[in-house]
Amino acid sequence: MKYTAVIHRSLVALVLAVPAGCSKQVPQALGTLEFDRVTLPAPAAERIVAIDVREGEQVKTGQPLLQLDPAHTRAQLAATQAQLQQQRELLAELRAGPRREDIARARANLAAVQAQAREARAYYNRLLPLKGKSYVAAADLDRARAAAGNADGQAAAARAALDELLHGTRPEQLAQAQAAVAAAQAQVSAQQVLLGKLAVVAPRAGRIDSLPYRLGDQAPVGAPLAILLAGDAPYARIYVPVQQRAGMHVGEAIDVFVADREKPYAGKLRMIRSEPDFTPYYALIGDDAARLSYLAEVALGADAAELPAGLPVRVEFRGPAK
Question: Which residue has the higher pLDDT, 266 or 133?
Fold first, then answer.
């Protein structure tokens, strides 16, 4: 009887020992729930005149969030549009070339200075024979010669001015005017884009996480006006130990345990870094190499859409998804 009892106790111990010996711990990793954070910076240092949403509100793509005062930007746009019009008119003037009245005036001016040049040259020629007879002073003769030369120079300048008008606008001047028009057009486009950005809208569907500024505030350029948590559902950001990195692949099915909930959420590995997220490998020696971690992201389904960001998670790796 004692012998039978001993055999029974031994079998019970063996049955209990087999599962313990055959069980294998499921690889795990820790992390937190996260959303894609979209920051909407202030495009200009303008006062907030309207806020159309509240923190925690779910928004759609293109939905208005807040409005900045457009008065100053509209004035700048009007100024750049006026400059553009000025440059366009200048280009049109250069393309049209000189007016007929300008050419006629240049011809008349040329005729007048030519007549003055002929008179000055004739006067000098009349004095020149008198030089040998001592009937004219040397100073008077020099003045007459200088006047004749000056008149000839004025006639040459008038001729050049007329030729410039007859030849029309130079190609280089047209190119410069075209470049000025293009620069002014770019300024107008930039102001139009800036004016459109003053009406801040949601670039993606998501939830308003934060509105750092209130109605009437004037945020500096680049300051976050709104922070949006984008995406239909959060994802798990986890840190994979180096021992498990080699066996993990994108698309692998993963169980995600959130906080104290017993039932896991079905997830799929969508990204894993190839480089350690913390200390580089070459800086570690010995047992410290086991402390390497690799950042990974696990996508969750629609059943996790209501979970808030920041909750701690624990994941278990089930193997490649089929």
Answer: 266
